[in-house]
Specification:
This protein is mostly helical. The radius of gyration is 20 Å and the shape is globular. Helix 7 crosses helix 10. It contains eleven helices and no strands.
């Protein structure tokens, strides 16, 4: 568990040690995310800030307005997805590119973005299929004991799914630097770190649980709270990507923490 803590703290420190460098490396993805979020805010402020806004079913709505909204909603959602992948892929490249290739830049090409998206979708589908039997006890706990107990029961469930995901997901940073890697290659490479990865997943599950509790207690339905929620989500995503990058460095490149 101590090694898991070392990897987690190392991943966090990589993001915040020189935060200006982190922003410079990921600026293109952040810019696309910002534009997509701005469009989404214009189309539907509730989606952009996390606030829920439902249409009144008894109020007549203009078909023209709805067409305009959906016409903007699709490109906004696409920009959010692409921007997110660009940010994460750029971070992988920033950490993993060797000195003789850093002149290529960190912003990923369209091919890298598409490759990352395809691999992410495949991983997501497989994990969702595995989640069905794993989360049955969580649903039973929620029905019988309430949301708080269900959240506690969900921590090991998320840890198991995260463990499987991280064992397979070295294919993601690999594709950002042109290294072809299969699911089996990733699973084999992470075999010596299997116990450590499970410890990392427990840490992430606990951190996620605490962040959700803090968010429910502190944040409200307003723009400022929505902005804070978005920033925290992006930082959490970068830290998760940083953990994955660290695992790749250790398992594939033989780096030390």
């Amino acid at each position: 568990m101590s090694y898991a803590v070392r990897i987690f703290t190392h991943a966090v420190s990589m993001v915040f040690r020189d935060f200006s460098a982190t922003v410079r490396a990921t600026w293109a993805g952040l810019a696309v995310l910002a534009i997509g979020s701005a469009i989404l805010f214009v189309v539907e402020p509730g989606l952009a800030t996390g606030m829920t806004t439902l249409e009144d079913p008894f109020t007549d709505s203009s078909i023209e307005v709805r067409d305009i909204n959906f016409g903007l909603l699709f490109p906004a959602a696409l920009m959010l997805i692409v921007g997110y992948i660009m940010m994460i892929a750029a971070w992988h490249r920033f950490v993993l590119l060797p000195p003789d290739r850093r002149h290529e830049g960190f912003t990923p090409s369209a091919g890298i973005v598409l490759g990352y998206l395809g691999r992410s979708l495949l991983l997501g589908i497989v994990i969702m299929l595995l989640a069905i039997p794993i989360f049955i006890p969580v649903g039973l706990a929620a029905a019988g004991a309430g949301d708080v107990i269900a959240s506690l029961v969900a921590i090991p469930a998320f840890a198991v799914l995260g463990w499987i995901f991280f064992r397979w997901s070295l294919i993601l940073p690999a594709c950002t630097i042109g290294h072809k890697m299969s699911f089996s290659d990733s699973w084999q490479a992470t075999k010596p770190l299997a116990a450590t990865i499970f410890g990392i997943m427990i840490i992430l599950a606990v951190v996620d649980f605490l962040l959700n509790l803090a968010g429910d207690a502190i944040l409200t339905d307003n723009i400022v709270s929505g902005l804070i929620s978005v920033i925290v989500s992006l930082l959490y995503a970068l830290i998760s990507a940083s953990i994955l990058t660290t695992l790749y460095g250790i398992a594939v490149e033989g780096r030390a923490v």
